[in-house]
Design a protein that fits this description.
Number of helices: 7
Strand order of the largest sheet: 1-2-3-4
Low-confidence stretches: 55-61, 73-78
CATH class of the largest domain: Alpha Beta
Number of strands: 4
Radius of gyration: 30 Å
Mean pLDDT: 75
CATH architecture of the largest domain: 2-Layer Sandwich
CATH superfamily of the largest domain: Band 7 domain
Helix content: 55-70%
Strand content: 15-25%
Distance between the termini: 71 Å
Number of domains: 2
Amino acid sequence: MAEEDKTVVEGGTPEEEPKKKGGNKLILFGGIGVGVVVIGVALALFVIKPMMSEAPEGAEGDATEHVESKKEEKKEKRKIVNEEGKEVSSLIYSIENIVINPSGTGGSRFLSVSFGFEVKSLELQEEFTEREPIVRDALITILSSKTVAELTDAKQKEIVRYQIKKRLSKLMDTEDLAGVYYTDFVLQ
């Protein structure tokens, strides 16, 4: 009998022990379940989704047509009113997906931005197309010199817009650049 009392005192009641093991198993299986869900979502986002969006083999013609239609979208026409009140035709030229690291972030933050440039002549639009690498370089240089605070402040965005217009007008040697518009702006 003394041994039975000793066993009960050291081990506690026999009912407490299974509860502890069951609680640990629940936490273990719950953690595994959450891990499987996270891995499944990551797999879906980074592996399966890009595979689904790629053009299938043999569809190069479709992809070429898609790229050509995108280029045509860059040449939107719209009417604007000049200082005399006359309607003048203008064109919008787009430069998309410029990605830079803002100044002072050490590469830990990035800005993805797209622009629309309102030009007053077809010749200037063609010049933008021919000189797009030079225009992209100017945009990257101006934007990467700005801090996160400057890029998020509304007044500073207008200053950046003015700087871009001034720089591109000088690069293209023209005064026919009517406007600079942010068409996409994502800062992370």
